[in-house]
Amino acid sequence: MSRGPTSRVLMVAADAGEISFIRSHLGGLPTFRRLLSEGAFFPLHSTADHIPASVWPTMYTGTMPGEHGISQHIQWDPGRMAMRRITADWLYTEPFWYGLSRSGLGVTVLDVPFTFGNRLPPVVEVSNWGSHDLMGRFTANPPGLARDIRRRFGRHPMGYEIPVNKGAGQLEAMRRELVTGAERKGRLARWLRETTTWDLFLAVFGECHRGGHILWHDPEDESSHVPPGALMDVYRAVDAGIGHVLEGIDTETTTVVVFALHGMGRNFSQEHFVRHAMDRINASFRDRPMGGPVTRPRRARREGGVMRLLRESVPPRLQHAIARGVPVEVRDWVVSRETTGGLDWDRTPGFALRSDLHSFVRLNVSGREREGLLEEGSDAYNRYVERLTAGFLSLRIDGTNLPVIRDVVPAQRVFPGARQELLPDFILRWTDHPPASRVQSEILGELVVAPDRGRTGEHRPEGFALVVGPGARAGRLPPLAHNRDFPGFVTHLLNLP
Asked: Mind giving me the DSSP string for 376-425?
C-alpha cells in the first residue's frame, strides 16, 4: 500500500473537555498550552445540540443519529416496552478503524465510549476500563491483555455514575478518584503506545466528562457543595496524562490529534419537571375522546410508580450507597421501572425518557410500540402532539415570565435515517436558566419539584480538535468541522483513499 509522509496518527480525547475552561486555566495546563500554541485549532459542532450521548457513535461511524440509532447508553426498546442497555446484538455499529485494520493497518484503541465488544481480532482494543459511560464489563483484545492491565494498572476508580445529589464528602472522594484515574489512564495509554504496533492509536480520557458533571463550580449557586478548585485538579491530571502519552512522539512522522467531541458548562436542565408535566398532559388528554373506546382495560402497574416515589423520597446519600453496591443489571432495572412504572399503556399516549441536558419524550405509537395506542397521523395523534407542545412551551419560572423550554424539536425530522424510529419522538431543549423548583403554566398549572440529578455541569454542543504534525505545518489538513467528519479526516491523514 502506498503511504505518504504521514505514516501514523495518534489521537487522544479529553472526553467532554470544555475549551473555554481550558483557555482560562492555561497557566496550570502545560500540555494544552503547548498544543494551542503549536497546533492547528478546529472548532467542532456536534450532534450534542440535540442528543448529547450520540456524539461518539456519530464520530466513529461518520453517520448521524437517525442512521446509527443511538441516543443513550440505556434507551427505549419499543419491542420490549422497556428501557434497555444498548448491546451489540441490538444496536451494533462498526467503527471506522475496523476498515483501516482490514486494509492492513495496525490499530490500537483504548476506552472509546459507546463501542461494543471486539469483533476484529487484529485490532488491539480495550473497552470499559475507565470510561464515563461504561457500556458493560471490562474487556480487552488480544487474549491475556485484560489480565496484564489488571496486574500492571489495577482498576480505574471512576466506576458508574450515580445521578443523585451528593454531599461535600462524596464530591471530595470523587475528585480524588478522578485524579487517580487520569494518572493511571496516562500510564496505561503510554504502555499500550509503546508495546503495540499501530498506525492509528486512539485513547480516551473520561475524567473531564465525569468531573464536568459533578464538579462544575458555579460561584452564584450558594447551595453547591463543589469545592472551587476541584475541577481544575481533574483537568490538571488529564493534562499531565495526555502529556505522558505524547512524550517522545516524533511529529515529523506522526500527526497528533487531541480533541473533545463536545464541551461542558453550567447545568441548565429542568428534567425534573418532565415526568410530572407528562402526567398532567396525559390526564388532560384522556378527558377528551381518543377516537375510539379502550378495548384492553388493565390495572395500572403500581410497582413502578412506587419506584418513582422512592426515587423522589429516599435520601440521595442512601440512594448513592445502594446503587454503588448492587450489580449494574439491578440499576438498569430500576431505571426501566422508573420510566414505565405506574403506566397503563392503554391510557398512556406519551411518556418521558431520562436523558442528559435535553429531555426526551416518546409517543406510544400503534404499529411501532408493542402495545401502541396512537395511530400516527390520526386526529388523536395530531391533537396530542399539539397539546404536548403547547403544554411544555407554556411553562414559566414561578414569579417571572421567563420560559423554561426553548423549543420542542421532532427528533426524526432532524435526524432521518434507517434507525430513526429508535430515537425519541421529541427533544425538549431548555433555556439557559438555572434549575428551578417551581414553574407555572396556564395549561398545566403549577409544578413544584426539586432538582434531583446531582449534576452541577451539563453538556455543551461545541467541541474542538488540536492537530500537530506534518499536515498541520504544511497547511494541507482536510476539513474538520463536525464530529461526523472524523473518519474522512483520519483517512486523509493516513493518506488512504
From this structure: TTSHHHHHHHHHHHHHHHT-EETTS--BSEEEEEEHHHHS-STTGGGS-S
